[in-house]
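Data availability (excerpt). All sequences and predicted token strings are deposited with the supplementary files. A representative entry, Dihydrolipoamide succinyltransferase, is shown inline so that the format can be inspected without opening the archive.
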Amino acid sequence: MSRIEITVPKKAMPKKDPVHPCPCQDRPVNLTFKTGTLTWLKEVGEAVEEGETVCEGEVEKKALEFTTPCSGILCEICIEDEEEFAYQEILGYIEDGKEQE
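Structure token line:
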């Protein structure tokens, strides 16, 4: 099994608000020089699917969704709820369940 990082990307799309749609929700937020706070939607030990939202960040009053790079088990959280995150930081790790050769 291998551990795959969940990292803060250079750009992230804002979370869509179906009740109050806004054109700003269609533009990615550049995270290169910004920080935000994090909220986890999953807990360590929970199964996740590739592309599933595992945590949300708030940057400049915009909610962003961070997704998993692969399917597996959320095995570690590196930045806890309400802590600050920045570009390229590791948010957590997924154990992908694949045997290494």
